[in-house]
């Protein structure tokens, strides 16, 4: 945990000093792009605890850095196929990447040609896709950016029209890639939820009504106590999420709903100022809402959990 704590402090300080830094600068200065990359490929060779620490800090400040899709999902996908050249490029921060999982688009792979549409994809220069049972790289014929509610997490539509692909290998590891993505997102959600709690507590101490801080009123005390339980439980779920599909499904469900609750209650504690452009509370609610759809809503995670627990899936 000592390494994770040190890494957390470094990332927090860097994001505070350079909130608008590019991915390349972030990767160069902190080495974050190669966090999960083995040392033989030029990475740090860290594990799930360090992953959670970094993701929490990114979620805490709603950072737009493409850590989730590039340093987590794309790295895991390339490693699983033995695509060392791609791993090294990702580890050095030379490029960003997005991964398209099975079912994320209507795609057809005929030989070495890809046709179809991915309606929603995270931002990334390199596009890796699971299609036809293999992992491929393809350059979209067209990219269309959406105007999203959460501007800190850009989404794109990707069009492929008989597009040539580069094959990397078997695509059977896609579930592991998905689960690691869910784990990283859960840690981001836990970090965002904690920041919502911090903001709510700070405001409850400073805001006075009837000559007293509003935090002294029983209704606010209970609200903040409930939030503390949610936030601590979300962090525990996020830390366990990288272990197996079951823990990932638990975190995907619990952390999503905990973040939504924390973001909503933060606005309630702040009252009218919480919905103004001058205060960031609304931005956390937008991120929590968009995150709730990224790998499917909480119900989809619970359905997958039920299949593992009850159906032997």
Give the structure's gist in a few sentences.
The chain contains ten helices and nine strands.
Describe this structure in words.
With 313 residues, the protein is α+β, with helices and mostly antiparallel strands. It folds into three domains: 2-91, no CATH class; 97-170, no CATH class; 174-310, Butyryl-CoA Dehydrogenase, subunit A, domain 3 (Up-down Bundle), CATH 1.20.140.10. Helices cover 54% and strands 17% of the residues. It contains ten helices and nine strands. It has helices spanning 2-17, 23-30, 48-60, 67-80, 84-91, 174-206, 218-240, 245-270, 281-294, 298-310; strands spanning 97-100, 106-110, 113-122, 126-131, 134-138, 142-145, 155-170, 208-209, 212-213. The strands form two sheets. Strands 1, 2, 3, 4, 5, 6 and 7 form a seven-stranded mixed β-sheet that branches. Strands 8-9 form a two-stranded antiparallel ribbon. The mean pLDDT is 96. InterPro entries: AcylCo_DH-like_C, AcylCo_DH/oxidase_C, AcylCoA_DH/ox_N, AcylCoA_DH/ox_N_sf, AcylCoA_DH/oxidase_NM_dom_sf. Its EC number is 1.-.-.-. Keywords: FAD, Flavoprotein, Oxidoreductase. Residues 21-73 form the Acyl-CoA dehydrogenase/oxidase N-terminal domain. Its cofactor is FAD.
